[in-house]
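Dear colleagues,

As part of the handover before I leave the project, I'm documenting each prediction I ran so the next person doesn't have to rerun anything. This entry is a single chain, and its sequence is reproduced below.
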Amino acid sequence: MRSIRAVAALMIWLSALCACHSTDGDVSLPKKATDFIYRYFPSSYVNSKEETSPGVYVVKMTNGPTLTFDEDGSWTDLHGNGGTLPQIIAFDYFPAPLYDYIDSKEQINAIYAVARNELAYDVLLFATRLVYDIETGKVSETAP
């Protein structure tokens, strides 16, 4: 009987210890990030989420992409982890010249990753990397 109590106490202590190191429950995402996840990945579940540095949130979806958001909840990096991203994201967020360029190449359903900042969008397609310069509105192609 004594050993059962000892094992139970040890299990409780270990679960508490593991819970202390979990980053998933400790992080609250900005509302805009949460809304983005629900809208564009409605059938996926959040596997983990963490604040990697002040105001930078990384969300890993179960069997899906890794999403990075800034302090306002705007996405900065979407990586499909081998899968493609929903086409509707390109339609809703890409500047028209970039969207039209990808669509003209018939690759709108082949976007594997995208990163953006105040200067550019960097898009990874199946066999091509595109960089869209926000200031000039020009799209350039390079090998991935």
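The chain has four helices and eight strands. Residues 1-24 have pLDDT under 50 and may be disordered.

All the best with the project,
I.
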